[in-house]
Design goal:
The radius of gyration is 23 Å and the shape is flat. The relative contact order is 0.08. It is mainly alpha-helical. The chain has a domain of about 45 residues. The protein is about 45% helix and about 0% strand.
Length: about 70
């Protein structure tokens, strides 16, 4: 004899709402963000962080961020 325990609809939780549409970003806004990112994180500094932490794969990105 096999018995299976299941929860009924009463215990199923509330239904998930559909995701809202993401806000569309204009080209002007995205260029502003990129300009700020380039000022804050110059390429030479990121390269130095990668070298110092011996990061070789994307899974090491946390170490690079901590070092930076």
């Amino acid at each position: 004899m096999y018995r299976l325990k299941t929860k009924g609809e009463k215990h199923g939780g509330k239904p998930k709402a559909p995701r809202e549409n993401y806000k569309v970003v204009s080209d002007e806004d995205s260029t502003k963000v990129l300009e700020v990112a380039e000022k804050i994180t110059p390429v030479w500094r990121i390269t130095q962080a990668i070298t110092e932490t011996s990061a070789t794969e994307m899974k090491h990105i946390g170490e690079v961020i901590k070092w930076y």
